[in-house]
Write a structure and sequence with these properties.
With about 150 residues, this protein is of the alpha/beta class. Helix content is about 30%, strand content about 30%. Strand 6, helix 3 and strand 7 form a beta-alpha-beta unit. It is globular and about 45 Å long.
């Protein structure tokens, strides 16, 4: 199954977006760079939100990124995910940022395959706060395959 078909089978919605203040996904040569996409979930991990809630918030970010990539490229087919940066709104004692950002990585693995085009580099970092109090923000780099 192609990445586009797989994403659709997972219920990911693809819809045209209207350009806003920032470009949600920009093409530079054979690279697609996404802006940070924030979760709908707000709050702080380790102080009100559980790791599982953070995992779902990261998955939400990844789904939004896929829509932005689709808007920039017209399809998810022919892409390889190269890098994921995950930012987690964390209480100072919270140490499971990597488990939270697994929510994004796992969705990318489901869509692009865990090996091959979905096997990516990643950073998962904790922050004292994120814009508007969101729980998670994720950004990505994709390669447009030759």
């Amino acid at each position: 199954m192609s990445p586009q078909a797989k994403a659709e089978s997972l219920g990911i919605a693809f819809a045209p977006t209207t350009p806003g203040y920032l470009n949600l996904c920009i093409r530079v040569g054979s690279t697609l760079l996404s802006s940070g996409h924030v979760s709908t979930q707000k709050g702080k991990l380790g102080a009100g939100l559980t790791t599982e809630q953070g995992y779902q918030a990261a998955r939400d970010c990844a789904s939004k990124i896929l829509n932005s990539v689709w808007n920039a490229h017209g399809t998810l087919d022919g892409l390889r995910i190269v890098k994921v940066l995950g930012c987690v709104n964390s209480h100072p004692d919270f140490i499971e940022q990597h488990l939270v950002i697994n929510g994004a990585s796992d969705l990318f693995h489901e869509v692009f395959g865990k090996e091959g085009d979905g096997f990516h580099a990643r950073s998962a970092l904790g922050f004292a706060s994120l814009p508007t109090g969101v729980a998670v923000e994720v950004e990505t780099i994709f390669e447009i395959k030759p």
